[in-house]
Design goal:
The protein contains five helices and 26 strands. It is mainly beta and 450 residues long. The strands form three sheets. The chain has a 20-stranded parallel beta sheet that branches. GO terms for molecular function: polygalacturonase activity.
């Protein structure tokens, strides 16, 4: 009988567990899925543990250098099919680190990548060109805890391990007005393609949790994303000027929009000119003081061809919020939101053209957005306070807005719809729709679109 040393038996058990998780992540079962938006990663030709680079998962040792050394080793090694970096159970305190192409970052069950709260040593990077400045403050911005730029074939996954931003120190600076630069995300991928993020917990992000920007072929699924409801701007997932994106099977409870599709800010987004397009979102559950699903308000590069379905939001400010403003320019078009369940939500639906500030005074006041061809259907709500608001822009009215099979109920009578500078149709909507959505042409568009 072949003798195998205990250390190697342990490594084989871990490798087998990883293989099982990766195999499961590659398939989506019998449910309808968009997970084919990014190809499953190839079998990695190398496997290494963060502990092999001097890392210690004791919650006290700072592992920034260990993560940097491990990623650099993967980039140098160029193993066939790339390499997997294994994060064992334990609490791995670290500052920001960057990923490389053709790698898997794998968090074991019980593994926590925890951000240091030493903000003084947090690196700065240039603002995004489509924003022209930091989103919160002029100038540069703090790099995300886990960062990637210009990557291909990146897989961030695990056995429901946790990425913990320890965001309270950042939230306190924001609340006190002492924040020197725009806060960091937990995960930002820039100019990258073929990326998958799955089977993890993200918690207490300093700012937006997951931000794919200028990316294509991205799959985000099977995540839990958590932050207190009073944590400022802790959006869950914000695809930004990105295409062919799949987001599904996530639970999100944060202090801001659970999912917000963006595409740049005013004159900078118009000049950069990269829309967010071909995005599918399904089977999302969660709670927020703001919106469950939103588009905007930064939409200057345009947002089009979006399907969001099978959404379940409770104890939230808005069920669906589509928002833009004069000066944004761009477009929001061909958006379908379907099969939504709402409970204890203030506004069932809000589509508004007067939301969001501007990066500076150089924006073009005459750059008016186009909002056209929005389908909202099969929405059921209870404990709703207000049906909703659809408020276009006087010189750029929102057109072809279709509401179908929407039933919103409350313990008290639900406040009626309010509409302005909008045209479209409404079929089987309770409370009764506003008159702006009862034109013959609008009703014809609705009927033909269903």
């Amino acid at each position: 009988m072949l003798y195998m040393a205990p250390k190697w038996r342990c490594l084989l058990v871990v490798a087998a567990a990883i293989a099982a998780v990766l195999s499961a992540a590659g398939g989506a079962g019998a449910q309808e899925t968009c997970s084919g938006a990014a190809p499953a990663p190839p079998k990695r030709g190398a496997w290494m543990s963060i502990a092999s680079f001097g890392g210690a998962g004791d919650g006290r040792t700072l592992n920034t250098a260990a993560f940097a050394a491990a990623v650099a080793s993967i980039a140098r090694r160029r193993a066939r099919g790339g390499a997997l970096l294994y994060v064992p159970p334990g609490v791995w305190l670290t500052g920001p680190f960057s990923l490389t192409s053709h790698m898997t970052l794998f968090l074991a069950r019980g593994a926590v990548i925890r951000a240091t709260q030493d903000t003084s040593s947090w690196p700065l990077i240039d603002p995004l060109p489509s924003y022209g400045r930091g989103r919160e403050l002029p100038g540069k911005r703090y790099i995300s805890l886990i960062h990637g730029n210009g990557l291909q074939d990146v897989f961030i996954t695990g056995e429901n391990g946790t990425i913990d931003g320890q965001g309270s120190v950042w939230w306190d600076m924001w609340k006190k007005g002492t924040l020197p630069f725009t806060r960091p995300h937990l995960l930002e991928l820039m100019d990258s393609s073929n990326a998958i993020v799955s089977n993890l917990v993200f918690q207490d992000s300093p700012f937006w949790n997951i931000h794919p920007v200028y990316c294509s072929n991205v799959v985000i699924r099977n995540l839990t994303i958590l932050a207190p409801h009073d944590s400022p701007n802790t959006d869950g997932i914000d695809p930004d000027s990105s295409s062919n994106v799949c987001i599904e099977d996530c639970y999100i409870s944060t202090g801001d929009d659970l999912i917000a599709i963006k595409s740049g800010w005013d004159e900078y987004g118009i000049a950069y000119g990269r829309p967010s397009s071909d995005i599918t979102i399904r089977r999302i559950t969660g709670s927020s003081p703001f919106a469950g699903f939103s588009v905007g308000s930064e939409t200057s590069g345009g947002v089009e061809n979006v399907l969001a379905e099978h959404l379940n939001f409770y104890s939230s400010g808005f069920g669906v919020h589509i928002k833009t403003n004069s000066g944004r320019g761009g477009f929001i078009r061909n958006i379908t939101v379907s099969d939504v369940i709402l409970d204890n939500v203030r506004y069932g639906l809000r589509i508004a053209g007067d939301v969001g500030g501007h990066p500076d005074e150089r924006y073009n006041h005459n750059a008016l957005p186009i909002v056209d061809s929005l389908m909202i259907k099969n929405v059921q709500g209870q404990n709703i306070k207000e049906a909703g608001l659809i408020k276009g822009i006087p010189n750029s009215a929102f057109s072809r807005i279709c509401l179908s099979n929407i039933k919103l109920h409350g313990s008290a009578p639900v406040r009626p719809w309010k509409c302005q500078a909008v045209s479209g149709g409404a079929l089987d909507v309770q409370p009764s729709p506003c008159t702006e959505l009862t034109s013959m042409s609008g009703m014809s568009f609705c009927t033909n679109s269903l």
